[in-house]
Amino acid sequence: MHPMRQDLEEVLLTEEQIRHRLDDLAMEIQRDYAEKDLTLVAILTGSVMFIADLLRRLPMQLRLDYVGVSSYHGETRSTGELILTKALKLDVRDRDVLVVDDILDTGLTLVNIRAMLQKLQPQSVKFCTFLEKDIPHRENFQADYVGFHIPNKFVVGYGLDYRERYRNLPYVGTLRPEAIAAKL
Ligand code: 5GP
Ligand code: MG
Fold first, then answer.
1. Is 108 in the pocket of ligand 1 (CB under 6 A)?
2. Domains of the chain
3. pTM for this structure?
4. What is the mean pLDDT of each run of 10 residues along the chain (184 residues)?
C-alpha cells in the first residue's frame, strides 16, 4: 500500500491549525454550557476525530451519544438520500443537546437530524460542525459553532472519507484527480 499523503493535492488545514482552533471552540462551548446539562450527539462516522479532540477539551459534566446516518454512498457528491444506520440511545427529553458533525455542505443531513431530535422534546438543540463549506445555496440551516469555513471543494482527512479511506489523516486536504479516479 502507498502512503496517503501523495494522493493529496493540497493540505487545507494542518494539525497545528486544528489544535489551536479547537482550544478556542471548546472554550466557547464550555462557557455557553457551564450551567447546563449537556448531551453531545455526534454524527457517525465523519465526526470521530473531531468529537474525540473536542471531548478531551471539555472539563464539565456531560453525556455522549451517537447517531449514524449515511448519505454519500462513496461518491464525492451527495445523493440527497439519508439512511439512519444507528439510532440515539440516550433520552434527550428536557436536555440541552449539542449535535456535533464533520462538515456542513448542503445542510440536508443536519436539517433531518434537527427534525428527528425536535420530536424528542429536548430543552434546546444546537449544532457544532468542524467544517462549513462556503456555498451559495444552503438548505434552511445555520450552525451555532463552526470550526473552519472552507472553500467549496471535496475534502478528506480528520475523519472525512473518500470511499471510506483517508479518515485517519490527522489533517484536512483535497485529493488529486488521479486519487479520485483510482477507486481503491
Ligand atoms: P450535507 O448533508 O450538509 O450536504 O452533507 C453533510 C455530509 O456529507 C457530511 O456529514 C459528510 O459526511 C458528507 N460531506 C459533505 N461534504 C464533504 C466533503 O467535502 N468531503 C467528505 N469526505 N464528505 C463530505
Ligand atoms: Mg457525515
1. yes
2. 16-151 (3.40.50.2020)
3. 0.94
4. 87 98 98 96 97 98 95 60 89 98 94 94 98 84 96 97 96 96 78
